[in-house]
Amino acid sequence: MNYNWNWHVLLQEPYLQWLISGVQWTFQVAIAAWILAFSVGSVIGVMRTLPHRGLQIIAASYVELFRNIPLLVQIFLWYFVFPEIVPESFSKWLKRDMPNPEFITAAWALGLYTASRVAEQVRAGITSVAVGLAKAAYASGLSVVQCYRYILLPIAYRLVLPPLTSEFLTIFKNSSLALTIGVLELTAQSQQITEYTFQGFEAFTVATIIYVLIALLVTLIMAQLERTLKVPGFNSAERSS
Amino acid sequence: MTEFDIGVIIDSLPFLWQGLMLSFSLTFLAIIGGIVFGTILALMRVSGLPLLSISAAAYTNLLRSVPLILVIFWFYFLVPLIIGEAIGSYYSALIAFIIFESAYYAEIIRAGIHSVDKEQTSAAKASGLNYWQIQRFVVLPQAFRNMIPILLTQAIILFQDTSLVFVVSLRDFMTTASIVAKTEGRLVEMYTFAALVYFIICFAGSLCVRRLQKRITV
Amino acid sequence: MISLEGVSKKFGDFRVLNQCSTTVERGEVVVICGPSGSGKSTLIKCINGLEPVDQGTIIVSGSDVTDPVTNLTRLRSRIGMVFQHFELYPHMSVLDNICLAQEKVLKRNRRESVEKAEFLLTRVGLADQIRKYPRQLSGGQQQRVAIARALATDPVAMLFDEPTSALDPEMINEVLDVMIELANEGMTMIVVTHEMGFARRVANRVVFMDQGSILEDRPTEEFFNQPQTERAQDFLSRILPH
Predict the structure, then answer these.
(1) Residue among A162, A65, A77, A75 nearest A116 (CA)
(2) Which one of A230, B147, B215, C145 has the fewest beta carbons within 10 angstroms of its own beta carbon?
C-alpha cells in the first residue's frame, strides 16, 4: 500500500482551523436540534398518553411520519421543497433573508426527526409508571396537568434517562447529515481536508477520535446526571408494581 | 409556485427503479453481512475470554460512536488504497455498511443471547453437548426467535440508512431522484415522490413487524 | 460408582460446600435433603461438572470429574440430569428434544434416535405427545419428557435436582411414579428432593445437608426413625407432618 503519512498537515493552517470550525458547527447543530427535539418530543410523547383520542392520533401520526422517512430525505424536503410550498412572502424570506439557512434548516429537520424518537421514549417512560400512582394522584384531587407535572413526568424521565442519553449521542452522529446541504461540520471538514491534501487516513482518524471523545463526554455527563437525579431505592431497573 | 409536474416523475420511473433496486440490493446484502458478523461479535463478547470479549466490545463501541457518513467516507477512501485499484463505489459502500451495521446487530444479538434462560445452557451441557453445539442448536435459535422483531426493525433502519450513499454519488434511489431533480429542475416533485416511496415502504415494513410481533408473543 | 471426596466450594466469601464426602454404589438410590441454602443443588451440579469445585475429588464411573484433563462432554452423556424447571428446549418438538444429544453427542443416526425416543416416551406414558412442543404440555408431562430426554443417552446414573418442586401438587405423583419405576429397574440415582414419601419408598440412603456440610449420611429407615443430629431432627419435624 503506497501511502505518504503526514500527520503534521493537520496542524497547519488552514486545515487546523477547518477542523476546529467543523467541531463548532457539529456542536451547534446538535445542541440546537436537541433543544427542539426534547421539547417537541416531550409534548408529542405526553400527547400519546393522554386519554384524548384525537390528540393520540395526531401524535401517533407525527411519530409514524417522521420515523418512516430517512433523515436525509427529510432534510431535503425542508431545504428544497418547503420554501416552494409556503405563501410567497414567507418563501421569499426563507430563500433570501433568513440568516444561516443551511444551519437553521439542518437543525430544524434534525430536531423534528429526533423529536419523534424522543416522543417514543417519553411515551414508554410514562406508560411504565404504575397506573396505580396516577390513580392515587387523581384521587387526591390533582388535575391532569398536575399529575403529569409532579408525578408522571419526573418518574418517567428518570426511567428513560439511558435511552434519552442514547438519542442525545445519536443527534451528534446525525449532525453529519447537515453536510448534504452545505453545513461544514466535522465530517465535511475531514472530507474536505482529504480532498485538498490526500491525507485521508490522518483526517478521518482525527474526526473519528473527536466523535469518540464526544461519545465519552456525553456518557459521562449523563452518568453524572443520573447520579444527581437519583431517588434512593428507585432506579431505572426497578418497576413499580 | 409553478405547477406540480407529475410527468417528470412518470418519465423518470425506469431510472428511479434502477436506483431503488440498488437500494434494495445494498440493504439485503448489508443485512446478511451485518447479521453474520454481528453474531460472531456477539459470541466473542459473551465468550468469557478477555481477549475476544474486549476486542469485540472495542469494535462495537467504536462503530456506534461515529456517524455512518464518516464510515462511508473512510471506506470509500480506504478500500481502493488497500486493494490497489479503484473498486467502485458500490463495493466500498457495501463494506462500509456491513462493518457499521454489524456493530448494531451485535448488540441486538447479544441481548438476545442474554434473554435465553441460563438453565437452558445447563441442560444442554448436562446432556453432553459441547460449546458450539450448545450455541448452534439451543442458544442461538432461541436468541434469534426472541429478537426477530428488533432484527427486522433494524433492517428497516438499514434501508433508510442506504440513502446516505448519496454522499459518494452512488446511484441508489435517493441519488437517482436527486439527479432527476437537478437535471430537470423539478426539486419539489422528485423529493416529495422520494419521501412518499420511502414512507410507503418503511411504514408497510413496520406494520408487518408489528403484526409479526403480535403473533410471536403468545 | 460415584464418589465425592472432600468437595469444597466458595462463592466469593461465602462457603457453599464444606468438605462433602460420600459414595454411591451402582444401583443405589440416594436422596439428598436439607433446608434451602444448604448447598444440595450445588453439590449435585458438581457431580457432572456443571459447577466447578475449589477443592476435593469427584469420581464418576472411573473418570475424575475434577481433573481438568477429563473430557467432560463425553462423561456428561453418560450421566443423565433432570432439572427443577424441566428445561426442555422450547423451540424443538418433544421428539427433537430427545434426539438432539443422541445425534450430536453419541452420533446415532436419525432412525436409531427416533426409535429410542419412541421407546422412552412409551415408557414414561407419553408416546402420543411425540410431535408436540413443550409449551403445549403440562408441567408433569414436560418433566416426564425431560426424564426421557436424560435417559436417551443410556446413562449409567441419573441426577435429579428437585424434580417436583416446580410442579402443581396433582402432577407430582405422575413424575414420582416414573422415578420409582426407574429405581426399581436398578438405575443409580441421586435425587435432591423434599418428597420424603418417595425417599422412604425407594431410597437406600438419605444424605442430609445443612449450610454446605453433610451432617448425616445413613440408610433411609435409620435416618427417619433416629436422626442423630439436632438440625436433622428439627428439619424432619417441620417437613414430615405434610
Answers:
(1) A65
(2) B215
Q: Does any CB of chain B come closer than 8 Å to the CB of residue C63?
A: no
C147 to chain B, closest Cα gap in Å: 11
CB contact under 8 A, A73 and B195: yes
For residue C152 the three cell numbers come to 436417551
Q: What is the pLDDT along chain C (242 residues), one digit of tens a residue?
A: 899 999 999 988 888 999 999 999 999 999 999 888 888 999 999 998 888 899 999 999 888 988 888 888 888 888 999 999 999 998 889 999 999 989 888 889 999 999 999 999 999 999 999 999 998 999 999 999 999 999 999 999 999 999 999 999 899 999 999 999 999 999 999 999 988 888 888 899 999 999 999 999 999 988 888 888 888 888 888 877 65
* Residues of chain B positioned with their CB less than 8 A from the CB of A201: 77-78
DSSP H or E segment with residue A102: helix A101-128
Amino acid (one-letter) located at B10 = I
Domain boundaries, chain A: 7-240
Decide: B32 and B57 in contact? Cβ < 8 Å: no
- Give the residue from C152, C47, C157 showing the smallest Cα distance to C105: C152
Interchain CB distance below 8 Å, C100 and B130: no
Among residues A169, A155, A166, A170, the alpha carbon closest in space to that of A124 is found at A155
Which strands sit side by side in the sheet containing C2-11, from one edge to the other?
C14-24, C2-11, C55-60, C63-64
